[in-house]
């Protein structure tokens, strides 16, 4: 006759089965999802896959209300994957969300506690061979009405973010172009297939891809100016653009609601207000004069 387990042992087994797990979401050009656990986790059931990763929390500051104001999280960089993201992506102003879930309650998308929701700072300093530290600030307030960010004409966020009355995830199919460069320099790319009006691609961003030593490498730049089929970058490339370079350019705007609509001479030909990053209830100075 089998012997029954002690009550304390059963309680401990139940507690282990309900053990918590932290999920991390980094809102870059593609949302990175990681689980601070030994195996990949899918949350909710049948939903997004969170890749297992060694993650350890560093220093953090907390308000009297229990809100995390600033936190540093170290992500495993042994395989150099995080270093590659840091090299090709701008982390500054992008979202960091930390969720606590329980491994026996993955069924519903509502079964989580949001531990932190803030914006990441730029990656600075040397990147360790073992860890990539990411610092984020301005966590979401706890059930209280307040303006976390300054309410102004130009919001303190980058193109493609998800704040200031915008969703940041609008379908930009009609606001992108791609192709192969005809020529260029370290600061310009020329493609004669680009026929948009002057300044159409201003304030946006461009991904330039070049094969170097049989490896395809992506470089991101801000589109400083556009005219006569030529795109000018904000920062010089480490090489001159040639016909071996391909690109994808994304429409931007000057981050005000007015000019991101289809109501200025140079465009856009499609509505780009979903990515304006402007506070829509504050008019520009010129509008009030």
Characterise this structure.
The chain is mainly beta. It has two domains: 20-137; 173-288. The protein is 8% helix and 35% strand. The chain contains three helices and 16 strands. It has a nine-stranded mixed β-sheet with strand order 3-4-2-1-7-8-9-6-5, with no helix packed on it. Strands 10-16-13-14-15-12-11 form a seven-stranded antiparallel β-sheet, with no helix packed on it. The longest helix is centred in the N-terminal third of the chain and has 11 residues, at 7-17. The chain starts with 6 loop residues before the first helix and ends with a helix. The model is unreliable at 159-170 and 283-289 (pLDDT under 50).
List the helices and strands and how they pair.
Elements: H1 7-17, E1 20-27, E2 31-35, E3 41-43, E4 48-52, E5 55-62, E6 68-76, H2 81-88, E7 95-102, E8 113-120, E9 131-137, E10 176-180, E11 183-184, E12 188-190, E13 205-212, E14 215-227, E15 230-233, E16 246-250, H3 285-288
Parallel strand pairs: 2-4
Antiparallel strand pairs: 1-2, 1-7, 3-4, 5-6, 6-9, 7-8, 8-9, 10-16, 11-12, 12-15, 13-14, 13-16, 14-15
């Amino acid at each position: 006759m089998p012997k029954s387990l002690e009550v304390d042992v059963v309680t401990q087994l139940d507690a282990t089965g309900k053990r918590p797990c932290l999920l991390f979401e980094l809102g870059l050009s593609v949302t990175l999802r990681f689980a601070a656990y030994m195996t990949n986790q899918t949350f909710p059931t049948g939903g997004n896959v969170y890749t297992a990763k060694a993650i350890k929390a560093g220093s953090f500051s907390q308000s009297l209300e229990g809100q995390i104001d600033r936190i540093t999280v170290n992500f495993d960089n042994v395989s150099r994957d995080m270093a590659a993201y840091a090299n090709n992506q701008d982390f500054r102003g992008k979202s960091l969300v930390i969720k606590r879930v329980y491994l026996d309650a993955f069924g519903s998308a509502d079964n989580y506690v949001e531990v932190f929701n803030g914006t990441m700072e730029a990656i600075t300093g040397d990147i360790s061979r073992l860890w990539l530290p990411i610092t984020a600030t301005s966590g979401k307030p706890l059930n209280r009405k307040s303006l976390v960010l300054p309410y102004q004409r130009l919001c303190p966020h980058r193109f493609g973010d998800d704040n200031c009355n915008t969703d940041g995830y609008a379908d930009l199919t009609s606001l992108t172009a791609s192709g192969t460069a005809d020529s260029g320099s370290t600061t310009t790319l020329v493609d004669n297939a680009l026929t948009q009006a002057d300044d159409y691609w201003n304030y946006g961003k461009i991904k330039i891809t070049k094969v170097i030593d049989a490896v395809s490498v992506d470089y991101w730049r801000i589109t400083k100016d556009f005219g006569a089929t030529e795109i000018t970058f904000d920062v010089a490339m480490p090489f001159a653009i040639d016909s071996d370079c391909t690109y994808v350019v994304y429409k931007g705007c000057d981050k005000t609601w007015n000019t991101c609509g289809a109501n200025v001479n140079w465009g856009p030909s499609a509505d780009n207000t979903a990515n304006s990053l402007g506070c829509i209830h504050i008019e520009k100075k010129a509008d009030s004069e």
